[in-house]
Amino acid sequence: MALISETSDDVSNGSDPNKDPEDLHKKPQEEEENQNEKPKEEEQVENLAPIRRRDIPVILIERTVTLIRRCHYPRLSLISKAFRHVISSEHLFVTRSSLGLTEPVLYTLISFPPFEAPSWFILHRSNMSLRLSRISSLPPMFPGYTAVTIGHKIYVMGGRVGLNQPVNTVIVIDCRFHKWKYIQSMKRERCYAASGVIDGIIYVVKGIWETLPGPFSSVASSSGFFPIHVVLDNKIYMLDGQHCLAYDPRLRRWQNWGPESPQRHYWYACSCVVDDLLYAIVPQWCLAGSLIVVYDPRDMVWRPVKGVDDFPSPGYLESRMASFGGKLVILGWHQTKNSCARDSEKIVMCVEVALGRREDGDIWGKVESTSPVHSSFSWPIIDISRTVTV
């Protein structure tokens, strides 16, 4: 178990992994029209010089772009060099943040074996439809990494090279500009570690810069293999085989529950936390016919999320779920009708679910959209989905 403190906001592009880089409203003047005044000659109007895009003041570009959603920035950057300069400036994002105009953006890491290594994709809207776009400027991640988000940054820690060689590298990704850099390496190599952010501190199970006191759970695997984990109720919950473990960094205390415990009953890989409630996709026969269930750590009970039993589930084992602006976003693969053919398309589907709590305490969901967002001819493996704020 270890912790990292977030102390610097320096940004660099990190393109060399061998180095150690540290990061108008002006009211128009109204003119009263004099009916007796002689109109201007048409020649005078025709001789006026046209307004050119490069003559638009930078301050006007900044004020305009600040109010526009980030998903439109790629097209705006094509207008001129001045637009590209504004969009790529840190000042723009500082201004948006001060005005409360930041927005959630979903990032996901997908691999397409056996030909492609894991690559980062961003989920955004295009003409009112959702789609995934690959981010070519970010490096591939090591298998077995663990990742957390703080603000506009994603921290990627550990992983392995080859079949059985853990690494101790730490990469920080600045999602405002899709730049990255290496920061101080971990003191120990880690693969498939659990991680979470509590009180602004990154905790990793087990080990990095500072070892935290145990005792470690007697039922936990000696390898520390925790690919499924969440932060819930200010604790790091993790699955270890048939057991559920939790670490409370405030009290520095461990808890563990067996396979028959309520915590373990319906928790699978496709899960995430929204408003301190744990949501998970389950087989439809599991709990009252619902595809999505919710766990409240205060009463330690799983309940069905009502109203979401009629959408095509992308699968509770192969999918990944993320909290996205208070909603659930589920990504999973789907086969076309010619699924038996080797060259058939494999589709990545996205399901958006809005959530609401009724007066009786029940959680209701409403499926807002189900749409294909990416296609390929190899099986996609969705590693993680994470939401950042930019």
Percent of sequence in beta strands: 35-45%
- Name of the CATH architecture of the largest domain: 6 Propeller
Question: In the CATH scheme, what's the topology name of the largest domain?
Answer: Neuraminidase
Write down the overall geometry.
globular
Percent range of helical residues: under 10%
Count of helical segments? 5
The helix/strand class is: mainly beta
Give the overall average pLDDT.
79
Radius of gyration: 25 Å
C-alpha end-to-end distance: 29 Å
Instruction: State the total count of DSSP E strands.
Output: 25
- Poorly predicted ranges (pLDDT <50, ≥5 residues)? 5-46
Question: How many strands, which pairing sense, and closed or not: the largest β-sheet?
Answer: 4 strands, antiparallel
- Order of adjacent strands in the largest pleated sheet: 4-3-2-25
CATH homologous superfamily name of the largest domain? Kelch-type beta propeller
CATH class of the largest domain: Mainly Beta
Oligomer state of the chains in this structure: single chain
In short:
The chain has 390 residues and is mainly beta. It contains five helices and 25 strands. The protein folds into two domains: 51-98, no CATH class; 103-389, Neuraminidase (6 Propeller).
